[in-house]
Amino acid sequence: MNKGSLLSLDRLVVTYGAVRAVRDLSFAISPGECFGLVGESGSGKSTALRAIAGLAPIASGNVMLAGQTLMGPRDLHFHRRVQMVFQDPYGSLHPRQTIERQLMEPLRIQRFPDRPDRVRGVIRRVGLPESFLYRYPHQLSGGQRQRVAIARALLMEPDVLLLDEPTSALDVSVQAEILNLLMDLREERVLTYLLVSHDFGVIGTMCDRLLVMRHGLAVEEMSNADLRAGRATSAYARQLLEASRGYHPEALADVG
Amino acid sequence: MQDSPLVEIEDLRVTFKERSGSFDAVRGVSFSMGREKLGIVGESGSGKSLTGKALLGLVPGNAVVTAKKLAFDGHDILAATPREMRKLRGRRIGLVMQDPKYCLNPVKTVGYQIAESCKLASRVSSADAKVRVLETLRAVQINDPERVARAYPHELSGGMAQRVMMAMMVIGEPDLLIADEPTSALDVTVQLEVLALLDRLIAARGMGLIFISHDLRLVSQFCDRIVVMYAGRIVETLPAKDLSQATHAYTRGLLNCLPSLDRAAGTRLPTLQREAGWRT
């Protein structure tokens, strides 16, 4: 594996009973890079992300953060460096706690000083007014909730953000705002992103490199330039790219 | 057929009565359509689904529907009795919803459920219904209809379940199909197959289609005409092929904020600046 990589997977296997959700997955992400995982449902892209965060059972293979192999349950130090944003902002926030209370909790666990200031700073940074701290999740729109989820991830001042379909539950106009926010934050704080998406448009906007996955296997690694030029070598990646261009009856004769 | 439109809607309003007052979800929508593919596009909360549901008489109980005219093939929907509405649903108007897994009965086989809608739509014997079920499953491109007919919904993939839903809807041979985000829950490659199938079914049976979706690009590729809704109103109606020449700022804004591979990597996406004037 590349010595300079910040986060890498080495022949990772994740199994649930007899189902092998991720099979022999390897990739390495450099500091400051945005790496995309693309695939259809069941391709194992989200499972790989969850395995990194310690949320999926690793059967074999290694996850390495800054050269150190991660073993067992993730510790406080790991969560200082790596944070995750989930797809569904409705499910990832506590419904009966105010935004302030939810944002304070990780700071308390990590024993941060000046917690109220940090919370106010981060909520402003994601573009929400401070008054939102005293609201409950159901009083926010989907986009506002996703901003809160991003704020919570940023609190720890992490190096790596694991983004699991962060905009696929949102309207396109809101998606544009959230993607812009993520791009701004990455530049400003030199963050490293691992972004899971099924949308080539999102991946092409955000990522430097991407990996196409299918049935838990890596199909093809591409650079952003490859993606834009449509230079896919595997049949599956080409098919996926073609499908992402939308509905063209004439191009579909062979698919239907 | 040409002279009387399939659907006529004039000044449709759907109002929710709540403790804190009333909320107008649909505010004066008017359009009429024939046997064409009409797309209704808008973001969440724009009232696009409610417009479709009003046509089927399926709005939630706390909503009040009013309109100067709400007619399907000459039938006044607002004046129809529940019995008359039941006759329209399934037989004349079909509905395909977003998530097939929620719409199918989990404890009955797929074949049973399709046969049920067949028997409701026309008086046929169980044996005939069975034959029709297999025929229809074949028509929705299911290769081994016998096996699928015996399967329960949880044994089917998302794309397969959506085909089953379509089979259920077209078996009654309706004149109008309302498809509410029929492919949003599906993977892109499956999505295209389902759309191609929908296209074929509609062309073969000469049905009208109302295709409700948030995906402006997809609708423009699939439909003949697009109705763009914002905050309960129609802001623009245009032929699908002229989408790139859309004039309303909202339609243009929606088009622009899509992440696309034509834009350089890392450039910020244009965001939609909502104007108060769009609501009125």
TrEMBL record, chain A:
InterPro entries: AAA+_ATPase (IPR003593), ABC_transp_ATP-bind (IPR050319), ABC_transporter-like_ATP-bd (IPR003439), ABC_transporter-like_CS (IPR017871), P-loop_NTPase (IPR027417)
Protein name (record): Glutathione import ATP-binding protein GsiA
Keywords, comma-separated and alphabetical: ATP-binding, Cell inner membrane, Cell membrane, Membrane, Nucleotide-binding, Translocase, Transport
Gene Ontology MF, one: ATP hydrolysis activity
Membrane topology field: Peripheral membrane protein
Taxonomic lineage of the native organism: Bacteria, Pseudomonadati, Pseudomonadota, Alphaproteobacteria, Hyphomicrobiales
Domain ABC transporter residues, every copy: 7-240
Top-rank EC class of the record's enzyme: translocase
GO-annotated cellular components: plasma membrane
Location of the protein in the cell: Cell inner membrane; Membrane
The organism of origin for this protein: Tianweitania sediminis
Entries under Pfam families matching the protein: ABC_tran
UniProtKB/TrEMBL annotation, chain B:
One Pfam family cited in the UniProt record for this chain: ABC_tran
SUPFAM superfamilies linked: P-loop containing nucleoside triphosphate hydrolases
UniProt keyword Methyltransferase, yes or no: no
Domain ABC transporter: 7-256
Gene Ontology terms: cellular component: plasma membrane
Family the entry assigns: Belongs to the ABC transporter superfamily.
Entry protein name: ABC transporter ATP-binding protein
Organism, as annotated: Tianweitania sediminis
